[in-house]
Design brief:
Elements: E1 2-8, E2 12-21, E3 26-35, E4 38-44, E5 57-64, E6 69-76
Length: 78
């Protein structure tokens, strides 16, 4: 599993955090909904939308709140 930490400067009604594989395919929507400003941490347990374990490799997470989008790379090792 891995912990994704981020800080919001203001409250948001539509935050979305999604995990993508190296091909750009959606693996899992980790969070979608409103969130208060401040520091947050979400845990991805290395599973896809159906709950199956994904293989080790490079993945990307995309954090978008309507106005801004950021993307980071991570490596999942088992």
């Amino acid at each position: 599993e891995t912990t994704i930490s981020f800080t919001l400067k203001e409250n948001t009604l539509s935050l979305k955090l999604c995990i993508f594989n190296i091909k750009g395919q959606l693996v899992k929507t980790l969070y979608a909904g409103p969130l208060q400003k401040g520091q947050h941490s979400l845990i991805w347990k290395g599973t896809d939308e159906l709950g199956y374990q994904v293989s080790s490799g490079v993945y990307f997470y995309r954090l978008s709140n309507g106005n801004e989008t950021s993307q980071r790379k991570m490596v999942l090792m088992k």
